[in-house]
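Work Package 3 committed the consortium to producing structural models of liganded targets before the mid-term review. Because experimental data for this complex are still outstanding, the team generated a predictive model from sequence and the ligand definition alone, so that downstream docking and mutagenesis planning could proceed in parallel. The input record is reproduced below exactly as it was submitted to the modelling pipeline, together with the SMILES string for flavin-adenine dinucleotide.
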Amino acid sequence: MLLTFRLDEQQDAIGDSVKRFCQRSLGATPQERQKIEFSPNLWRALAELGVFALGAPGEDATGGFLDLVVAAEHLGRAGFPGPLPATILATGALPAAEVEAVLAGTSLVSFGRPPLMPWGMAGDISLGLIDGRVKRLDITSRTPAETLGGEGWAQVEAKAGADLGAFADLRHRYDLPLGALMVGAGLAMVESAAEHAANRRQFGQIIGTFQGVAFPLAEAVVALESAQLLLRAAALRLDEGAADGPKLALAARLSAGRAARKASFTAHQSYGALGATREGPVFWLSRRVAQWSVQTPSDRESMDDLPLELPSILDTQQVETAS
Amino acid sequence: MKIALTAEQLAFRDEVRAFLQPWKHLNKYLVSENSPDLMEFFRAMAKRNWLSLVWPVADGGLGRSAMDEFILWNEIAYNRIARAPHSVGIVAKTIVRYGTPEQKAQWLPRIRAMDLTMALTYSEPEAGSDLAGVRCRAERQGDHYVITGNKCWNSRAHQSDYLWLLCRTGEQSARGKALSLIIVPRESPGLRIRPIEVMDGNFFTEITCDAVKVPVENRIGPENGAWSMMGAALADERHVQFLYGRLRRDYEDVLNFVRANGADRDPVVRHRLRELAIDVAEAELQSLRVAVAVNDGIDAPAESAANKLVHTLVCQAIARAAMEFGCESAVLVDIGIEILWRQSMIETIGGGTTQIMNSVVARQRLGLNGTK
Ligand SMILES: Cc1cc2nc3c(=O)[nH]c(=O)nc-3n(C[C@H](O)[C@H](O)[C@H](O)COP(=O)(O)OP(=O)(O)OC[C@H]3O[C@@H](n4cnc5c(N)ncnc54)[C@H](O)[C@@H]3O)c2cc1C
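The resulting structure, written out as tokens with the ligand in place, is given here.
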């Protein structure tokens, strides 16, 4: 059968190992997880798991883009902190000599559009998106900037250096992991809110029996699953070397963004006041989704790069795989 | 994970595309069974045995896979020629599963050849979404049933040869456990059928059965056993009900329309078109997911409900957007945009409403019994 949505054993194994790793390193509950902040040690531990080498070019790769998407979905569910999309982008943009340290988790990548740089305080390598090109940045000063997502951003003064290529040629490496993080976070929020709705009683009823509660959650999960299917399909096509893979990856990232934002609001609402608390079950993920949607290149700006004609996914099948 | 067709499936798709060439002018879609043009088209399909593509060989079919059936109807949907007729789908597949050898011999060859058509006669004035509340009664009198009651919203029943009628053969309080399926000739004495025009140019009907007499052998399956039979038929048909080809074509037509009017220079219009392009890509994967499940014999109610939700809402979103882009010619009947708007309104009602589909997803996927 050439049509199946089941993941293979390797992908299941990658998913399981990332899930177990998140449990070990962040704890098992949202309460524990949201207290864990980014640290270089945590980042190196994730690197040791081999996640950064998924989808890496050439011999560095320990797996493909689909493997990466599976791993990133789990990281998104667990709210794992750190610049994953920038890291995956860098493995495709930097010279091999520098990629090694990125893969090892010893060089942290900050990617953005100066003066505001996500992960700009901790970044060892800074890459800028300037006039559609990815360029090396020489940072001359940095000041911490507090953000909604709670990540260490910086206001920087920077000089643009070497040109590493057109962002359009590299962006699938950014879009795929970003989309997968959003889908993972969205699913975690909706499933958690559904569990709450299946237990909480008001007016003598489980609130999940109210359609006003159940239907928005159903709509949110359908949107997330659509995005998940599209992300995985895009990753598959990139692994197959299809020319349309990058376009599909961009569509998938945008699909994931809108689904995850919808999931955030629905989850907040379903929890009532509990959903509005700073250390509650939703905010730790929803704030990240909001930040991922707007950080450079934002969903809004990325939308303008999407062609008006997207190919049918089946039509992009690589004919030799059908023999 | 793999998303590709086999060499045989690709060859079949090409064969279907070639077959459809002379029929492309039928680009109306959904003016469904019984229109004379379409009958000619269906008979051309019947010559290739494509109406019975997946029926077992022993029952006169080609025994092909659900995936082939998906490929066939998806190409037809892309050309907006027709939907799969109820007779060859729900009705025939139910007869294949539950009919006696005599019933199979009586009905299947004629259905396969498009020599007869059937109208799905389930809904009633008091039983729409809540189909288990059907009241139309069939009383057993010797070797006949005598049927009395009302039906409504039945697509083109006034032009069908037979009704595939859902009726009560037991207690009202037994709900779904006391329903049977009976084939009723349209010309039966006591049967009155009034057409009602739908906003898309199609016809529903309103039906009155006043002591309509039908032989007991016209009942398919066990008495009072209709509910599970209908569930099985629904599962058999999931992959051909909502097909992404249709959405792809709607989107392409709207994009061409927008370009012809120069509205694509407006960034707001382009933004909305891109949202729709993403919607269409999502819908393709949703429908492939259902096709794979049906092909593999897996019951996938939540996935099917999700597919229906996505398809019908996207279909509406495309049509609504086209009407809201500010191009005045969208209202001209000849241009072919306003028909999308008229037609898409009904998609979220027939075959289970959006709300009912949301309930299925809430229950099956999230464990929420959203009934209030
Ligand atoms: C194009 C088209 C073709 C059709 N073809 C046929 C056919 O061939 N044969 C046939 O028998 N019937 C046919 N129907 C009828 C169709 O099956 C019914 O319209 C459908 O089941 C809904 O029933 P209703 O119209 O009575 O609406 P109702 O059930 O009265 O629903 C009205 C509104 O209430 C909502 N609602 C109902 N129950 C709930 C609930 N529990 N929770 C939340 N909301 C709820 C619905 O979603 C809807 O918005 C067709 C309908 C259409 C539009």
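Reviewers should note the following from the model. Chain B has a mean pLDDT of 95. These observations will guide the Year 2 experiments.
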